[in-house]
Structures are given as C-alpha cells and as structure tokens.
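Quick log. Single chain, no ligands specified.
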Amino acid sequence: MRIRPGRPYPLGVTPDGAGANVALFSEHATRVELCLFDSVDATRESARLALPERDDFVWHGFVDGLAPGTLYGFRVHGPYEPAAGHRFNPNKLLLDPYARAVARPLVWNEALLGYRPDDPDADASFSDADSAAFAPLAAVVDGPPFEWGDDRKPDTPWRNTLIYELHVKGFTARHPGVPEPLRGTYAGLASDAAIEHLQSLGVTAVELMPVHQHAIDASLVRRGLTNYWGYNTLGFFAPDARLAAARDPAGVIAEFKGMVRRLHAAGVEVILDVVYNHTCEGDRFGPTVSWRGLDNASYYRLTPRDRRRYVDYTGCGNTLDMQHPRVLQLIMDSLRYWAVEMRVDGFRFDLASALARELHEVDRLSAFFDIIAQDPVLSRVKLIAEPWDLGEGGYQVGNFPPGWTEWNGAYRDAVRRFWRGDDETAAELATRLSGSSDLYADDGRKPHASINFVTCHDGFTLRDLVSYARKHNEANRDDNRDGSDLNNSQNFGVEGPTDDPEIDALRWRQMRSFVATLLLSQGVPMLSHGDEVGRTQRGNNNAYCQDNELAWVDWDLDDARASFLAFVRRAVAVWREQPVLHRRRFFHGRPIRGRGVKDVAWFRPDGAEMTDADWRRPHCGCLGVRLSGDQMDETDEQGEPLVGDTLFVIYSAHDEPIDFLIDGQGRGERWRLIYDTGRPDATDTEHDGGDAYETLPRSVVVFRLFGGPP
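-> predicted structure:
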C-alpha cells in the first residue's frame, strides 16, 4: 500500500472511500509505524507502514486503499528510559486510543509487558518479546449511516428523573423474556421484555455500567476470574464487543445505536458510567498495550521524584494526566463522540475527583470543568460525578460546580444509619430527605444536584444489606480481603437466609422502608438493578469479578419477591404523581403566603412540632413530616403552577409499635392512607387529623390530604 503525508486531524483512522487518513499523537516518539493484520488470528502484521509526517506532535499519513474492516495497531519508537518517564518499546503492538471498534480483545500474556518480569531490576529492564499475537487489534470502521429515523432524546427534566443503574449483561443474562441469543447484550437490553420491565417500573433513565471496551486484569486471569464490571478501560471510543450479539465491528456499533434508539422511543434516557480517571495498563508493572507505549510521560501522572512510578488517586495503579492538553482533548473527543454519534444522554464519571486534580488538591475550577462548561454539546447533557477518589482530600461530596449532579454518599450513609437505629440520626436524615441543602444550596444548585441512593453496584444489594452483617467475598478468591466493610444496616440477628418467618418479614419490611425513603426524598432517586426483585449476591459486596449467576439478576420470582416488586412499582407511581416530591427549590420552612402552613414541618409522635431540643435527643428514631403540595409557590418548565397533594409521612426506626398522631394540629383535616411499608396490603383507609395511627416497627407510612380546612 502507498502512504503519503495526509493530515494531522482528525486523530485516529478515518476512511474516505479512497483510503484512510491516519493520525496519532506522541510528543516524545522518534518513529511511528502503522501495522496491518489479515485476521484476528494473525500473530504478526502483514504490513508495516511508517507515518511520514509530524505536526504539533501528531504523526500522520494517508494510506491509499485502506478500507473499513481492516485490522490495525501501532508500533512506536522512542527512548526507553523509565527513570525519565519514557517507556517506548516497538516490540509492543499498541491500540489506537481513538479506535472506534476493537476487533480482538487483549489476551493476557507476559509478552505484553514492556520489561522482563524475571529481571532483578524489574520494570527498568527492556523486553524484546513481541506482543502482536496477544495485543488488542482495532478495526477501521466507516459503515453505512445508521438510520436513526425519528429518534428524539427524551430530555427528561432532572427533577422528574428516576435513574436505574444496570449492567447490560447482568440485567438481561437470565431474563426469560429476552430471546436467548440476545441475552447479555445491547440488543437484549433493547428487547421488548427488558423495556417493558423498565417502563412498568417507571424508570426514566438507565445508567449503564461501563460499556467502553475494557481489559481483564492479569491478577484476575491468574485466579480464573474476569473483570465483569468493566472499570478497566482499554478503549474510550469503542463499545465493548463482548456485550454485543453482533460479531463484526461495524455491527457492534450499529447494535449499540439500535439500543439507544429503542430506549429513546420508550422514553428512557441512556447515561454511561465512564472511567476516564485511569486505564487498564495499571502501575509500572502493568502491560504496555496503548498509552504507556504511545507516550507514557504525556498520558500519565508520574511522581516527580521517581518518574518510574505513577501517581495513583484511583487505587488502580495509575491516573491520567488531566494537566496535559492532549489528554483533555482525548477525553473531550470521546465524550462528544458518545453524545453526538451514539446519542447518549449523559455521563456518570467514575472517581470524578481524580479528574479535578490539577496539582494535588481537588480543584473545582480545573481545566476539565472549564472545558465541559463551555462546550456547546457536553454542557447540555446530564453530568453526574462520583465525588470522591482514593487520594488525600478526595471526598468532595457537595463541592462540584454548578451544572453537575453528584452521587450523594452522605445521603446513603444517613439513611442507612437511621434505619439501623443509630442514635442522633434524625436531624441529618431530615436534611437528606429535604434535598441536602447544606451541600448544594450555597453555590446555587437545586435539590436535583443530589443523586440519592441506598445501594449501587459497589457494595451489598438491598436484600443483602438487611441480611448480612459482614461481607462474604470468598468467591473472589482473595481470602475475603476485598470489598468495603461499610454496611450501616442490620441482619436482625441472623446471618444470611433464614427460615424464621418473623425475621424474614422484618427484612422485607426494612427493604420496603428503604425504597420508600428513597422515593420520598427531594433529589434524584437511583435504584440498583435487581433490587426491585430482591436480588442477592449471597453476601458478596464486591462482585466485580463474578460474571455468573451470583451477579446476574434472577428473574424467577417467588411470591415474596413478586410482592416486593409490586410495592416498588407502587412507590414509584406515588413518586411520579406527587409534584411535592419533585421540588425545583429547597424548602424554606416558613408559612406559605401567610396561610400559617409551612412548606415543610416536622413532628413528634404526640403531634407537636419538633423543637431544637427534640432534634438533639439521642434516641429520636420516629418522626413525621408534612409536605405541603397544594400551595408550592413553584412552576414547572413551562411556567405553569405546580400544584399537587399535601402529604404526611411517618418514619419509624423503632423496634416497637408507636402510636403517632397524624398531623395533630387541630385543623380539622382529613387524610387518606397511600401506603404503609409495615402493612403492604393496607390502602385507602381514611383518618382524621389528630388520630393516633399505630406505626409498626421499622416502617414508613404515607398519607394524602383530601378534605377539611386548608
């Protein structure tokens, strides 16, 4: 094939019918070669072409006749000086960081290492083993334009958003309604059965655990396990081919787009969980498969005193260098590709604090935030931060800039502590139920800045949260040392499954109360997939390496699980129907328009309003709240007044029944029961204001005002 100068932009391999332009950034390289392969089984390249030009540290060339479907990689020459941060090794075949498709995944072998593992000087040594037989291969893609038809993004307002976090494979692998060939795939998630479940649940957005092409860690391969979750990115542009029913690279991309189109048609937004804080290459003892061999000193943060080592804010061995303009460009180009070409609706940024570190401290005014804020595309999508990393000062809940929402870890912890029965938790619970104004109001953000959750992929499932007092991660083959010890719930004295009907009933009640609390809180609720059907991982709170039935959702529902699903659907329906649960502004606790009724008021069981002394009582485990929905003094996005029901909610974490006066303020009001997590079959009973209602242990009771004086 003939190669000529070509253009330095766009980066990556871009076909045009006559051939393809090839462009690759490397500031410190001395030579870059494009390597072409005949098949995914090839162990050596069939052609090697040196890129003839370099502009702005971008090596480029145009290859005549280079067609879509061609498999390729790069070999990059330059200094191998680990002490100076350089790890060039042309014996290692490298993946294009702009590859749109990965036709062959990484296959673990020591030949992928840039050093000789048996050398006494370890990573300072140089390996001449060729990695071409084991390295990932990219595919040139430029298939026919995808027929998006009348696809329209749902554009659901934040305040009306209900997020459902799911793993594409785990959600669909065992679903009997998903056609068997499509289980575990993007097409399976787009199937009628999967979408029917999402719609019946009331979900408005799915948050997909990582779908970028990822690599399997060598340590997991040695233990006979895999990286199921996918937080180990290999390609920031390529959808993971292992999650596709299609077998050809162009088909994988089309299948992903088809999933997005189908979900949009069902009114469901698609949010991607993205991992830009680190890569699959790990620490200095990891493989050389892309960025390390392309230009280690440019892509990664290296320790100033010993540039053989990597700064690690992620616990995964390395941290991408967000101070380098080409790294920022890579991330922004990737985000725009997914938002524009793949039409996703938003992103959840894993360990987002690592992206905000300019020098060492987390900086809310970092270049990363500045670039997104001014970008005409990315500034308009949903942006969610996991607001912590593992570095010093990495816990940044409440400190991300306007325009961002955050996984609210403070919400999760407060709700768990309250329902466990810990002392002195009522005041913080009230703050979290009200939208966490202490975290988000000071910079002009609204209640929807708080992504509220009780459980997520990381930790116990909801059912395991109330069934286990300690983790059981033995299946991970790491002597149960991995995973967090955080629980903040209780197992009612029995570890794991039980035949005791009383304890079993308490557990299901506690689960209903967790779900009710989540859906009665101001902010954006997030459910973890399978929690609505009582999914268990048998006490494993770190199932990242379990691509099997331990982690997949079991859809074979017994009566108890089916009943729980019915309750969750009902609680979501209440959330959707009640504007007072979707406030655009924080409560202020003052009377509404001189009516003498506050927008929010908190009560003791005897009907008296909570005082400062009450909030400080150590054993305040039962409280009520009146949410005035009939006069909210708010408008919707079209400027129409928001008017709904006034609700009265009782939260009781006591171990014994409590008689609670229903808004006993002597106003002559009438209330109707909406639901009671202690009596899931009880509905529509009517009560006078001031009546005593027997609240069962560890339950939530919701009433709706329907009559009497305002």
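The chain has a mean pLDDT of 94.
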